[in-house]
Amino acid sequence: MSMHFTHYTLIILFLCTFKVSTAQISDGGFPFSAQQNNIEIPTLKINSPAHAKLMAEDENNAWGNRVAAPLKINADLNNAGKWTDLDKNARLWTLGIHSKNAKALALQLDNFYIPVGAKLFFYNEDRSQILGAYTDKVNNPKQVFFAGILKGEKIIIEYFEPSEVKGQGKFRIFNVLHVYKEEGLEALSPIEDQGRDFGDSAAGCHININCPEASAMQVQKNAVCRIIMVLEEGMGYCTGSLMNNSSEDAKPYVLSAFHCQSEYTPMYEFYRFDFNYEGTSCTDPSNEPSFNSITGCSAIAGYADTDFQLFELSSNVPLSFAPYFLGWNKDIAYEPLGSNLIHHPAGDIKKYSHEFSETRIFNNTVTWDNDLITTPQSHFRVKLDVGAYEGGSSGGPLLDNSGYVVGQLHGGTALCDQAIGFCGRLAKSWEGGGTPDTRLKDWLDPLNEDATQIEGFDPTSISGQTVTVDGTVALENGLPFEGVSVNLVSETNPNEFTVLQTVESDANGQYVFENVLTGGDYVIAAELEGCHRNGITTFDLILISQHILGVAEFSTPEAYIKADVNGSGTITTFDIIQARQLILEQIAELPQNSAYYFMNDEFTFAVGSSNVFENAPTGNPFIINLLFLSEDTTVPNFIALKVADVNGSATACP
Hints:
By secondary structure, the chain is mainly beta. It is about 10% helix and about 35% strand. Helix 5 packs antiparallel against helix 7.
């Protein structure tokens, strides 16, 4: 059976939107201005900060890992840039932003929504770097977006909008991040020669993760990510790693370093976690490699004395990222016979460092440059024999030779040869400060098994088994809805989807998918043909009319969805006309809409989105996501919303 999805103008029903909404997925392609020479791009020039002043601020505030400063602006689709009509079916908005002497620029956007069919690009002036096209896939509940980092003094924004969604897209650029340090570029030189650039790391200083020296860490490397920290004070780099927990449920916990953000005001919704940012071989690549990103997180636990910070990402890590969740060892007396450090020095591609000898617990206090004094035995002291580290490496996991995390990098003496590092001990972070928000055990051992060590977890390892997935379709009044077609859809790659099974709900509204393979990501969606007249009465016409007249406006997203009878994205007298035509049997079905929407009962609309036309929900309320399916699962109910039946009186379709 083929799948039919109605296009509801503001609430996106296309299956391609199921993808993890905060993974910044780009569809590729080229900006339209590159294809047409007559596109005008106005430039907004902003006051550039003096780099010497910024450096002095860093020195005075101990902001050692800040690489970019924020410049506040207020530019949106209405008050800045220029609209150009491409033809009767599309238009283009362009804006250039120039900050003198910037080594690179990045942008923060809010009030962000990209409708289906629209495309958003960011690129530098010579188009040597192009980001995009970004589409409706990047919409997220907080309506924010982070764009960057593009080298040079000027960044260009280009937004393409087809006529069918004219006026629906929105975003505001409120912050320009002006990169003033070489470290702010996406790859950097070795620590003893700041004149070098991407691909020029000195042999014996930084070792690429795919060099022979790192051969034993080829599984563990997939857990490590670069963190771009977006702060009220600017932007900086650190390193993090995915951590397994006793439930082995792929909860997206990332371990990093407390000091990375302790001196700043973090903007967690803009934090970006870049996975797979590495060269393909031991040799430095000549061009910057691609990577996979997730934007947004919550800081759930941290402790200054052992310098750990635990984040929970705003979404699960897609299987297409090939993630790995590191195992750990919390033995309080354990001193590894050799240790390994995987990290992103200064935001560069993934690197590797190693100590051959026993890694010792440091029995003294350590005084840090932010005046923190950490207690005895809170850290390991690591004397690196291979590789080095530098700013941005902080938070990188310290692993024993079996690949278990025993700590994370805090700092030390970052020499190019024989660097000495201090790493906060996971065994001490386990109890931390004695509360859930200052220790690891509540998060990494939710089953309270108290195991000293747990293995790493590869989500693909559970594939090949079969389980059942079941759910229920119900009317708004809670009664079962029989005969609804429910589709199980599988992601075969980030942009392709396959219908695996289609079943119908039974007399109890229940449906079951059997023999579903574990280890995959799935989507469930429901549909029903016919029954357009069901539940529609003149009372519904009165309710729609009262809303239009402002007598009794709708207060829920569901009411707006049902009242938009013609699927135009607005509620007008045309909706009343089409509903009346159905009642009078002048038409048998709605020409531009389906009879029912089936809404995920656990979907949470964005704050203030009772009027979905002014506050479009982010994500897709009409699908159910199943990520990392590993066991028999009962999913949330589908609730049937009958178009034009505003008062919810419709019964099951006869």
